[in-house]
Amino acid sequence: MKWAPESSDDEPDLTPMIDIVFLLIVFFMTVANIVTARRVEIDVPVAEEAAIPESQENRESVTIAVDGTVYLGATEVALDDLKAVVAEGVLRSPGYQVLLRVDATTPYSFTREVMAACASVGATNIIFATHQSEN
Residue 54 carries which DSSP code? Predict the structure, then answer.
Protein backbone atom coordinates (compact mmCIF):
# COMPACT_ATOMS: atom_id res chain seq x y z
CA MET A 1 0.00 0.00 0.00
CA LYS A 2 1.31 3.38 -0.97
CA TRP A 3 1.55 6.14 1.66
CA ALA A 4 -0.54 9.21 0.86
CA PRO A 5 -0.41 12.33 2.98
CA GLU A 6 -3.65 13.38 4.56
CA SER A 7 -5.25 16.32 2.89
CA SER A 8 -5.08 19.36 5.11
CA ASP A 9 -6.48 22.82 4.93
CA ASP A 10 -3.36 24.94 5.43
CA GLU A 11 -4.96 28.15 4.19
CA PRO A 12 -5.67 30.74 6.89
CA ASP A 13 -9.21 31.61 7.84
CA LEU A 14 -9.71 35.20 6.67
CA THR A 15 -13.15 35.63 8.20
CA PRO A 16 -11.98 37.36 11.42
CA MET A 17 -9.75 39.73 9.46
CA ILE A 18 -12.60 40.66 7.11
CA ASP A 19 -14.84 41.29 10.12
CA ILE A 20 -12.27 43.65 11.64
CA VAL A 21 -11.83 45.52 8.35
CA PHE A 22 -15.58 46.09 8.10
CA LEU A 23 -15.71 47.30 11.72
CA LEU A 24 -12.86 49.74 11.02
CA ILE A 25 -14.65 51.05 7.94
CA VAL A 26 -17.82 51.67 9.95
CA PHE A 27 -15.80 53.34 12.73
CA PHE A 28 -13.97 55.74 10.39
CA MET A 29 -17.15 56.62 8.49
CA THR A 30 -18.86 57.46 11.79
CA VAL A 31 -15.94 59.57 13.02
CA ALA A 32 -15.76 61.42 9.68
CA ASN A 33 -19.46 62.33 9.97
CA ILE A 34 -19.00 63.58 13.53
CA VAL A 35 -16.00 65.73 12.60
CA THR A 36 -17.78 67.36 9.66
CA ALA A 37 -20.94 67.89 11.72
CA ARG A 38 -19.05 70.09 14.20
CA ARG A 39 -19.00 73.05 11.83
CA VAL A 40 -21.70 75.45 10.75
CA GLU A 41 -22.06 75.69 6.99
CA ILE A 42 -21.06 79.12 5.67
CA ASP A 43 -19.72 80.58 2.44
CA VAL A 44 -16.05 81.26 3.28
CA PRO A 45 -14.38 83.99 1.16
CA VAL A 46 -11.70 83.22 -1.44
CA ALA A 47 -8.18 84.63 -1.08
CA GLU A 48 -5.32 84.46 -3.58
CA GLU A 49 -2.66 84.09 -0.87
CA ALA A 50 -4.55 81.55 1.26
CA ALA A 51 -2.34 78.95 2.91
CA ILE A 52 -2.97 76.03 5.22
CA PRO A 53 -1.30 76.58 8.62
CA GLU A 54 1.37 74.03 9.53
CA SER A 55 0.04 73.32 13.02
CA GLN A 56 -3.62 72.86 13.80
CA GLU A 57 -3.18 72.31 17.53
CA ASN A 58 -4.27 74.68 20.32
CA ARG A 59 -7.01 76.08 18.15
CA GLU A 60 -10.63 77.01 18.77
CA SER A 61 -12.99 77.26 15.81
CA VAL A 62 -15.32 80.29 15.95
CA THR A 63 -17.90 80.87 13.21
CA ILE A 64 -19.80 84.06 12.50
CA ALA A 65 -22.94 83.65 10.39
CA VAL A 66 -24.43 86.27 8.07
CA ASP A 67 -26.83 87.49 10.78
CA GLY A 68 -24.00 87.89 13.32
CA THR A 69 -24.71 84.70 15.26
CA VAL A 70 -21.51 83.41 16.86
CA TYR A 71 -20.82 79.67 17.04
CA LEU A 72 -18.14 77.87 19.01
CA GLY A 73 -17.72 74.70 16.99
CA ALA A 74 -21.36 74.00 16.08
CA THR A 75 -22.84 75.45 19.28
CA GLU A 76 -24.32 78.92 19.32
CA VAL A 77 -22.72 81.05 22.06
CA ALA A 78 -23.05 84.55 23.46
CA LEU A 79 -20.06 86.85 23.24
CA ASP A 80 -19.45 86.67 27.01
CA ASP A 81 -19.42 82.85 26.90
CA LEU A 82 -16.98 82.98 23.99
CA LYS A 83 -14.70 85.26 26.02
CA ALA A 84 -14.72 82.78 28.92
CA VAL A 85 -13.78 79.83 26.69
CA VAL A 86 -11.05 81.78 24.89
CA ALA A 87 -9.65 83.14 28.19
CA GLU A 88 -9.41 79.59 29.51
CA GLY A 89 -7.62 78.48 26.34
CA VAL A 90 -5.12 81.34 26.57
CA LEU A 91 -4.36 80.45 30.19
CA ARG A 92 -3.97 76.77 29.33
CA SER A 93 -1.68 77.26 26.34
CA PRO A 94 0.53 80.22 25.38
CA GLY A 95 0.30 79.39 21.64
CA TYR A 96 -3.50 79.42 21.66
CA GLN A 97 -5.10 80.31 18.32
CA VAL A 98 -8.61 81.26 17.26
CA LEU A 99 -9.72 80.05 13.82
CA LEU A 100 -12.25 82.64 12.71
CA ARG A 101 -14.67 81.41 10.06
CA VAL A 102 -16.75 84.29 8.73
CA ASP A 103 -19.35 84.13 5.97
CA ALA A 104 -18.28 86.15 2.93
CA THR A 105 -21.39 88.37 3.19
CA THR A 106 -21.23 88.99 6.95
CA PRO A 107 -20.92 92.70 7.82
CA TYR A 108 -17.48 93.58 9.23
CA SER A 109 -19.01 95.02 12.41
CA PHE A 110 -19.80 91.49 13.62
CA THR A 111 -16.26 90.34 12.87
CA ARG A 112 -14.80 93.36 14.68
CA GLU A 113 -16.87 92.57 17.81
CA VAL A 114 -15.65 88.97 17.95
CA MET A 115 -12.03 89.97 17.31
CA ALA A 116 -12.24 92.61 20.07
CA ALA A 117 -13.73 90.05 22.47
CA CYS A 118 -10.91 87.58 21.75
CA ALA A 119 -8.24 90.26 22.08
CA SER A 120 -9.70 91.49 25.37
CA VAL A 121 -8.92 88.14 27.00
CA GLY A 122 -5.45 87.79 25.46
CA ALA A 123 -6.07 85.84 22.24
CA THR A 124 -4.12 87.82 19.66
CA ASN A 125 -3.30 84.95 17.27
CA ILE A 126 -6.39 84.90 15.04
CA ILE A 127 -6.41 82.88 11.83
CA PHE A 128 -9.00 83.68 9.16
CA ALA A 129 -10.48 80.76 7.25
CA THR A 130 -10.51 81.24 3.47
CA HIS A 131 -10.58 79.11 0.34
CA GLN A 132 -7.60 79.13 -2.00
CA SER A 133 -8.31 80.74 -5.36
CA GLU A 134 -7.89 78.55 -8.41
CA ASN A 135 -5.26 80.47 -10.38
Answer: S
Which secondary structure element, helix H or strand E, spans residue 16, and what is its range? helix 15-37
- Return the SS3 of 26: helix
> How many whole angstroms separate alpha carbon 124 and alpha carbon 127?
10
Mean pLDDT in each 10-residue stretch from start to end of the chain (135 residues)? Answer: 63 88 89 66 72 72 90 89 92 86 89 92 84 64
Residue 52 is assigned to a structural domain of this protein: yes
Q: In terms of residue numbers, what domain contains 92?
A: 46-132
Distance CA 71, CA 89 (A): 16
Question: Could you give the number of structural domains in the chain?
Answer: 1
Q: What gap in Å lies between CA 89 and CA 96, rounded to an integer?
A: 6
